[in-house]
Specification:
By secondary structure, this protein is α/β, with parallel strands linked by helices. The chain is about 30% helix and about 10% strand. Among the domains are: about 90 residues, no CATH class; about 180 residues, no CATH class. The structure holds 2-acetamido-2-deoxy-beta-D-glucopyranose (5 copies).
Length: about 575
């Protein structure tokens, strides 16, 4: 067995030597990232350059002071406690005939303690829930009695909502993903944009919430969900989903919705299932040593109103990227105004995820390339030049014209499932970070999952087609049949840099032995070549040393040099108001 192996190695090395002398191995075969050789040298981790960021001002949980005239309605803690006088639990229906000061606890199933990343809190009383939307700093009183409770004027309550609500107006369509999970798909009367309804979960298409329509029937909904403050809508509450929160932080909003429908128990289960799977995949991909070369990721978009690009550095993208085992590149310029500056910022990107609306560059991949200033021919020649430079300097520097993502075709968009330009990612991406995470892992390592269809990320430079959502079964409207995901044991030692020394087959014996799966394919084709060549002549030559790519770890810029725009700061600076929605940055 051992001698057969040695013979094989001998033949392959002869082949390699011949190949070096007499055959031009097609570039495509050798420059594939997967064909790159494993190395035992661990990559030096890229030093994290912290971006100076004004910390989010913690909005303290307001406990209304004791109002002496109404002792019974004073909530005491942030989540649970009901007054000690509370008696038997009653069905929510009975609450309608109950008094505001009833000693019966009509909300026996309370939310447990919320994670610190949650952007809302709730205080339970017997007949109402006081909800504090921390993201908007607004209070809502959700009451189950017939009449609104008098909660005094110790806090500014925007809205009183009678619960349980039976129908919704999803003016911010990001509510849809959460409502689907809670089984409320058929209870959505209105939406802010009908083409945004990408999910197949409802069999009752919601109608456009058109404020200009004098006949808009406001009795058809019990609560309306707005992206920010609900100006002038007495049934309106706000949502605070935001890229300033982590992916799991945003997933917690499912619990917020459950407060309106008394589905706290379901919501806890849903969130825990999502978090469990998210953490399973996060832990699997980040297992020490399993990925030799971490990929560099850039999320970008272009905002037509400010005519600037954005390189997204929000907490959401930081956590998502590192949880997917990759590095989020820290740019020198956060909001390039010029495509060529944007292009410069992509120099080291292994994967680019562009959230720009397709209309901004006229939809197709070749238009995208033209827009940023890339071309296939320039990518090919710049790759050659970079290799030539490498030979003299022994330092591989990515060319501006041929960054890793362009060489390896790794330009992605989040519109795999979409409907006339409306993204399914928009309506349920925030509700399902477990799916987003799996997509990002799969985009980097297509063989990570044995069989899985991506749900948000579209391989744009392969011109993968967009599609509408498939049947509600495949889509997973709810998690009723949830089964914990298995952790994945995966190893990948392929660099996404070019196979520098392998290009002209200067492989050493040791390296050939190191070649694993993908290398085996090369060896096989090499074997065939060797047999042909052996018939011609035999020539001996020494093998040369394999040199691994040295990643530059030095950053010569500092956070102070970052060209930060006030728009990027608004999420962290302002306590309320401008933090949400309307930033034009995609969420
Ligand atoms: C998100 O990332 C930060 C570091 O950027 C880390 O401190 C924090 O724990 C992460 N949050 C979650 C929920 O994983
Ligand atoms: C790309 O990485 C190199 C080092 O490998 C560094 O010198 C250069 O500044 C990086 N480019 C950008 C745009 O960050
Ligand atoms: C609805 O969304 C689509 C895609 O996002 C957009 O093209 C369209 O203009 C929107 N319609 C309205 C009424 O805002
Ligand atoms: C509809 O979806 C798009 C993204 O696909 C988003 O930009 C827009 O704000 C959404 N509209 C509403 C009303 O939610
Ligand atoms: C990843 O980016 C860093 C700079 O942020 C760069 O030094 C490194 O070479 C990049 N990796 C690859 C494989 O291009």
């Amino acid at each position: 067995m051992k001698s057969i192996y040695l013979l094989l190695v001998l033949i392959v090395s002869i082949c390699v030597v011949f190949a070096q002398e007499s055959i031009t191995v097609p570039e495509a075969t050798v420059t594939t990232p997967e064909a790159t050789v494993a190395t035992t040298v661990a990559e030096t981790p890229v030093a994290e350059t912290p971006v100076a960021e004004t910390p989010v001002a913690e909005t303290p949980v307001v406990t209304p002071p004791v109002a002496t005239t109404e002792p019974a309605v004073v909530p005491t803690t942030t989540t649970t406690t009901a007054p000690a006088t509370t008696s038997v639990v009653a069905a929510a229906g009975d609450c309608l005939s109950a008094d505001t000061f009833s000693t019966t606890d009509f909300f026996p199933n309370k939310l447990g303690a919320l994670d610190s990343s949650a952007q809302f809190s709730v205080t339970y009383s017997n007949t109402y829930k006081l909800v504090h939307n921390l993201a908007l700093d607004e209070y809502y009183v959700l009451y189950c009695t017939k009449a609104q409770p008098d909660v005094g004027n110790t806090f500014q309550s925007k809205t009183f909502i009678q619960i349980p609500v039976r129908s919704f107006a999803a003016i911010d369509t990001r509510a849809l993903g959460y409502l689907d999970l809670l089984g409320q798909s058929n209870n959505i009367a209105y939406v802010g944009n009908v083409s945004n309804v990408t999910s197949p979960c409802s069999n009752k298409a919601p109608v456009l919430f058109d404020v200009n329509n004098a006949n808009l029937d406001r009795t058809l909904y019990d609560v309306a969900i707005y992206p920010g403050s609900a100006n002038n809508d007495p049934k309106g509450v706000g949502l605070g989903v935001n890229y300033a929160a982590s992916p799991l932080g945003n997933a917690q909003w499912v619990k917020y919705f459950s407060l309106f429908t008394n589905q706290e128990v379901q919501a806890e289960t849903i969130y825990n299932d999502i978090a469990t799977d998210y953490n399973t995949f996060k832990n699997s991909i980040n297992e020490a040593g399993h990925i030799s070369y971490r990929r560099n990721v850039t999320f970008m978009n272009y905002d037509p109103s400010s005519t600037r690009f954005n390189i997204l550095q929000d907490q959401y993208f930081r956590n998502l990227t590192s949880d997917a085992g990759a590095n989020l590149i820290t740019p020198n310029v956060l909001q390039p105004a010029d495509p060529s500056v944007m292009k410069g910022q992509l120099q080291n990107a292994s994967l680019v995820i562009d959230l720009t609306a397709a209309t901004a560059f006229q939809t197709s991949f070749s238009n995208w390339q033209n827009w940023l200033g890339y071309s296939d021919s320039a990518i090919a020649s710049a790759t050659e030049t970079a290799l030539t430079n490498y030979k003299s300097s022994k330092k591989y520097v990515n060319s501006y014209d041929a960054p890793p993502f362009a060489r390896n075709k790794q330009l992605w968009r989040l519109d795999l499932v979409s409907n006339q330009g409306s993204l399914d990612y928009w309506t349920r991406g925030m509700a399902r970070p477990d799916l987003v995470l799996q997509d990002l892992i799969q985009a980097q390592f297509p063989d990570y999952f044995k069989s899985r269809n991506r749900v948000f990320l579209r391989d744009f430079d392969d011109e993968e087609a967009t599609r509408t959502a498939s049947s509600s079964d495949d889509y997973g409207c709810n998690l009723n049949n949830w089964a914990k995901a298995e952790s994945v044991s995966y190893t990948n030692s392929a660099a996404d840099a070019p196979d520098l020394d392998g290009t002209k087959s200067k492989l050493s014996l040791g390296v050939i032995i190191g070649v694993s799966v993908a290398g085996g394919m090369v060896a096989l084709s090499c074997l065939v070549t060797a047999m042909i060549l052996l018939i011609r002549k035999f020539k001996h030559n020494g093998s040369s040393k394999f040199t691994r790519l040295n990643d530059e770890t030095h950053h010569d810029f500092n956070s102070g040099a970052l060209d930060r725009d006030p728009m990027m700061m608004e999420e962290t600076n302002e306590a309320s108001g401008g933090r949400l929605g309307g930033s034009g940055r995609g969420l």
